[in-house]
Structures are given as C-alpha cells and as structure tokens.
Amino acid sequence: xxxxxxxxxxxxxxxxxxxxxxxxxxxxxxxxxxxxxxxxxxxxxxxxxxxxxxxxxxxxxxxxxxxxxxxxxxxxxxxxxxxxxxxxxxxxxxxxxxxxxxxxxxxxxxxxxxxxxxxxxxxxxxxxxxxxxxxxxxxxxxxxxxxxxxxxxxxxxxxxxxxxxxxxxxxxxxxxxxxxxxxxxxxxxxxxxxxxxxxxxxxxxxxxxxxxxxxxxxxxxxxxxxxx
Length: 228
Description:
The protein is of the alpha/beta class. It has helices spanning 3-10, 24-33, 48-58, 72-81, 93-101, 113-121, 132-135, 137-145, 164-168, 185-190, 193-207, 223-226, and strands at residues 12-16, 38-42, 63-67, 86-88, 106-110, 126-129, 152-155, 177-179.
C-alpha cells in the first residue's frame, strides 16, 4: 500500500504544530490509540524536525509526514527526519522537483485552475486544496475539480469535524481531509493527550459515517452519510 492509498484508507490527516519535541511521541501515541495512526508535522516551529524524527523512530507503523514545507532545504530536512510524505501550502516547483527526484510523495497546495494546471505539468495526481473552508468548501472544490477528471485532493484549512461529511461525500475527488482540530497545539502543550485520543476516535467515527456531536449551526449536512 502506497502513501496515497494509506491516506485514503484513513480519510483524515491530523495537521500538528509541535513546539516541544519531547511531547511528540506522547501525541503520536494518543493518535494511534484513537485509531488514527497518521500525522502531518508542520515545519512552523524550530522543534518540528526533531519532533518528526522522534515520531518516525518510535512509531514505525505510523504514517508521518511534513507540512508547511516551503523550500527544497526543508524538504531535505523532513526526508532526513523520516517523513514519508511532504505537504506544502502552495505550489513550489522546486519543492516538487526535489521530492520527485528523491521518490517521496508530495502534495502541494492549490486553489485556482492555473495552479492545478501547473501541478498537472509535473505529473501530480493528488493535490492539497488549501485553504479549503475560506475558499468555499466542498461546493467550490466540486466546481474547481470538474474540468480535471481523475485529479484528487486533500482539502485542508478551516476544516472541523462537522465539515468532514461534506467533503467525504465527494467520493473519489477527496483522498482525505487535513485538520488541526484533532491535536491542537494548546492541547499538546497542556499534556491533554487523553483529549487528543478522544478527538481522534470521534473523527474516525465521523469518517465512517456517524453524525458528529455538537454539529456547528449552518454546517453542511449530508444525510446519505448518516445512513451508511
């Protein structure tokens, strides 16, 4: 099973900001115990490479990648730390080139047809749709993906558990949804790992078709999913 297939099986990618690498393995264990053995460690903090390294070493069966990768140097740093995939907020051809040269899956961010066409020129088949909710959510993604049959997306940005059904209902268009609500930095800093485990369990249940608790008013609903 390749990385994209693993992401498709999980349907959710926890997007994680870690400031203290010493908390990384406890956070990862909470996700695994919650049934979600996956994490995108964002390169927004100085401790991110070490956090990724610790998770990859201590949890070899966990699918761990690097996010917010802005240049080839960070991509190399992430690869050396054990990242199995690379995610960037925008389309940087130099980052894509590095990843393709080193045979590591890369999912650059796009939100316009022109960016999508640039990614297609590189032979990419799965892209990050970012920022998903501010750009218009599932309705916008459905519209923008229509001219590109076969292209698939990982929506990320502003997504909460209540938004999952609307994206997953798009079927083959969506590989998985990325979200920071499962393991927010505040919970990690406070050592609230039981809370992270519980939130992972809830997200997994919703991805299986169960109705999210405390659904936000006005959030998209897809009744067909609740009956699965």
